[in-house]
Specification:
The protein has about 900 residues and is mainly α. The protein has a domain at about 665-750 and about 785-895. The chain has 40 helices and ten strands. The strands form five sheets. A two-stranded antiparallel ribbon has the order 1-10. The protein is elongated and about 120 Å long. The protein starts with 7 loop residues before the first helix and ends with a helix. Residues about 1-25, about 340-395 and about 515-530 have low confidence and may be disordered.
Length: about 900
Amino acid sequence: MKKYVLSLAAATLFHTGSQACSWSDPDYEYFNLFTQSIIKDKSYLPFLHSYSTRFYTDFKPSEIPDENIDAWKRLFNNQFSYAETDYLVNKVSINDLNALKKGNPANPLLVKAGPGFYQKYSEAIDYLIEAKYLEPYMRVKYVANPDAFYYNENQNTQNATDLDYQKTISALTSLYHAAHNPEIKQRYGYQLVRFNHYTRNYDAAVNAFKTYVQPVRLKGAPYIMALDQLAGAQRGLGLDSEANWNFFQVFRDSRSRKESAFVSMKLSDTASFNNILKRAQTGEDKNMAYFLLGYDDFTNPIPVMEKMYEINPDSEILKVMAVRSINELERSYLPIYYYTTNNSITETSPSDATVKDRTVPVAAPEKNELSFWQKLVRFFKNLFSSKEKRGSASGSGKDDDELLNNPDRIPVFTKNNYYYDQQQKDFLDDLEKFTDKAKGKSGDEYWQIADAYLKFLKKDYQESTEILQSIKTSNPEYQEQIRRMKLLNDIVSQPRIDADYEDTLMNNYASYFKEQHDQKKDSTANTDYYGVTPSTKDFLKDVLANRYFLQGEDGKSFLMSNKLSDLQYGPDLNLVKKVEAFYRKPDKTEFEKQIIAKNLDDVGNIDAFFSVIYGDHAMKSGDFASAKAYYAKAQNFSGIPRMEWSEQANTVVPMKYAATAYNGFSNILDLVFGHNVWVSYTSSPQESMEEEDHSAFPFIKPSMNKLELADALLRLKEIGNGRGTEAAKANQLIGNLLYNTSILGYYRQIFVMDLDNTNGGKYDFQNLKKKINYQYYYKNFPDLSYLEPDHFDLAIGYYNKALKQSADREQKTRILFQMASAEQGKYYQYETNNMINTDYSDPKWSEKEDARQKQLNEIKNQEYRTYFTVLKNQYSDTQTAQKLMGSCSYFDYFMK
């Protein structure tokens, strides 16, 4: 996994999208290419699909006008704008209104209203004065539960019981009877219902509604607000059925109160739903009831939608159900990352495998036959293209039809790893049939757009484009969605991304790939606490990364999804070579130069970066001569590219290495040739390691860079080819270095592009024969860190030579212990390679686990304890053995 040198506090500010993180937000983990908010009835915006919050919130509150403000705007004969009316009703102070009443207004809006304004609207102004007086008290008094364990910060605020009940009721009743304007009269009735509700006089609230609200016979905003309060009072009386029905009516008739009414309804059982459905008189009422039933059930929403369709195929709320369904499917077809599963592990590395071998067998989609015209165009394009060979890579050798119908071309359905997705089904076919049926009945172009999008998810790009071309609409939101989908179809439908099409991308769609475009042009991009949300640009980058991957152009695929520096987290040699091949490609297209190659520029000296990776690989392989040659080209290496927190800049910045700090190339202590005192990766080198005597080899310096280290190893190897004590010591030192830089060694970070030996994905024992097999592309490459397994036999080989060359029993004891430690590493590799996971639900789990562990212990003792046995039988009397027994509890156990 990535390692950032950050304080804990700073680290929490950065989110890499890993679902394992507690702060992961599922609404940031898909691309949202089908804009949910294009629905025409904006009052349903809170009910669009969201996993992060109870209701959808990615819209401006002003998109849902408040019917109460509209009512006031009409009452004032549209003298004010909506915003001005909202300011007058909700923001202007009671003092400003009293000043207006006295004839000396100071508030700019009231001055603007002009002389005579109060006289003309005196009843309305007087009502607003009374309402603003009451408003601070209009809440229920908090009564703490005796068992409550938390403090309610609002328990001491004003509430309805702070007003004199009789005086307030008397005043409101008097004002009600004095009012001549029916709407103002009904507003006083609303205040009477609300005041009784909030003082918990529930029966009085119900009577107030019947006495003061219903007789006015208006069904506008005041009535809806009063009905909302009536339902709350009925809930207080335990009249749940009546309360649900009245909340349902508020949900139906209000634009701005749908969300609160939905929350207030309690449809926890079938009887509650059936009661509302039975009372529903109109088709739209019934459709709203079905919407409430299907709102949270997204294992398969089609049955509920079918019922709604039978009632009214042009229902607005049916479109809300449809857009929620589309969004649910999109999350499975277009996640920001296709997670690697157990099926994605093969016995071949992704870089060694052919494209065919990469894919996990899945049901291939129906083959989309090319039309005669498409085949004709493709024939002449291939025949006359002057750029066919320009920019072409080694490729997969597959023709266009094979690439076009590859089952791993994204989008592709995958189950997300959320607990609430366990029952997720792929209902794309069913929704497509439903949408096709609906577009034939409804006059709204929405259904055609939805149908085209579902065709896009099914990879039927030709038909999707034809549908889009046929749509005639003046709706700007529809037009924007159509424009984006045409672009998506054009790019995604290309069988092969060659040099010609890369030119097309730069000529027609460059803005969708350049960084400065993110927030300005792409309406789907957004920035929030979690960072930048996935956008159309991000999706297109993923598509191209996937296409290059399937075409066998691994270098370009990697760089579409990652920075060059990311290779440090999994420096697979074959992939590195392909990335380097792209770097050195002489005839890059403009797209390759401007979009892909820019991801090479974050490692300092690029040639040195590659040379360090190759040199490290050669060192781990025991090829010191090649390592020296590579390291000679890496002397301009500026350090492993890492980030650190800058207090001065208040952000992360590229790490600056101290002159004496290990940076991936320089400042390697001679303790790398030493041996463990004890196994503790977190202790200092001087605590964990003990220096081996290398005074006979003055070329081993106290601190070295990798070039000097490789040179020292070559000299040691040459000396080790001789005989005697010096040769034995030289081979022992080489063995020590190989062991110390293995996964078990204190210096395991030295040859794997890491800065320290702390745990992480790099240091997990990996299967010897298996590597991570990327099925789609290399996105999130650092999150799947992988290192080729250590060759412990290399170290054992040098130790064995030293053992034969040495005549000193104490030295032989130390060498044998080191050989035994390396052999332990071989066992760990064997165990990982033969891991069998027994299902915990198996009634014989304990029995099987005991048998498995017994078998492993037998194999360990019979095949991986060779050198411990020699130590015990032949060298247990040495001082070194006695010392080792005191510092190594396992060795002590074995010896006894």
